[in-house]
Description:
- The protein has a seven-stranded mixed β-sheet with strand order 1-2-3-4-5-6-7, covered by helices on one side. The chain has a six-stranded mixed β-sheet with strand order 8-9-10-11-14-15, covered by helices on one side. A two-stranded antiparallel ribbon has the order 12-13.
- It has helices spanning 43-53, 69-72, 75-81, 93-97, 100-110, 112-117, 191-202, 221-242, 247-257, 259-264, 270-289; strands at 2-5, 8-12, 23-28, 32-35, 59-63, 85-88, 128-130, 136-138, 143-148, 157-161, 166-168, 175-177, 180-182, 208-211, 215-218.
- It is an alpha/beta fold.
- Strand 8 (136-138) and strand 9 (143-148) form a beta hairpin.
Amino acid sequence: MEKVLENVYLVDTFSYAEKGTISAYVVDFEKAAIIDPGAANGAKILLEELEKAGIKDKVEYLMNTHIHIDHAGGSSILVKHLNAKVVVHPKGVKHIVNPEKLWQASKVVLKELADTYGKPEPVSEDKIIAVEDGQRFDLGGDTIVCYHAPGHAPHMVVYYLENSKVLFSSDSVGCYFDGMVFPTTPPPFSYEDALKSLERMMELDVKYVAFTHFGIAKGKDILKKAYDKIVMWCEVAREVAKSGGDVKEFMKRIVEVDKEVEKFTKMNKSVAYGFLEISAMGMLDYARKK
């Protein structure tokens, strides 16, 4: 568990497969919360780190930004070992209670990667908090404010640590690697919702943005950069869609116009590169429908 900010710790929950790709955040005040518990197969890592830090008994909330299995799959295992509630968007509750449909859909999209993440288990409904937009959680030292943030997914929530001014953005702002940011826009992607959510986040007083994929960005400029990237990618997607091009063509064009993507493709991150491919599918699918 690495201290990345005051009272905020990062755990690399996917280190068993690809280091530096999926992070969970432990926010530790009088009460503790885990933001994006990660995949089911990474839950053991998180539990071990909580034990080492001596804060396992302080964890009261498992806060899921959304229900995709690389973010929320670990909740079902962690809730058995912690005296904590699972926090999730109201639209995601049924998939946490019964994840079978989510699991089958994940296998179709992710293929063998789904097994690397692990299959989520059911969570009893009495262990779940369906979080409302603007709902607040007092940790005794700071407060987490929850904002619904559709776009990447209709069941997306971002968490804002109010006094510390840390935004836990998850995929609503995109992926962040070595200072580079790119959109995460899997199907069904909502372009309009994604931009509105980012506009709302840009109104917050943000000192740090904490990405699930992966790590901390200082300042809020990254939010505007992510906004501009979505606009740029969508313009390219519309051009490719009009010409009848496919995802391969769209990816080729994106590498040409987005130099950060070109740089990223040269990094040894096969799973993270898969995020790019799925994002291209969602963006192009949106453009075709429009």
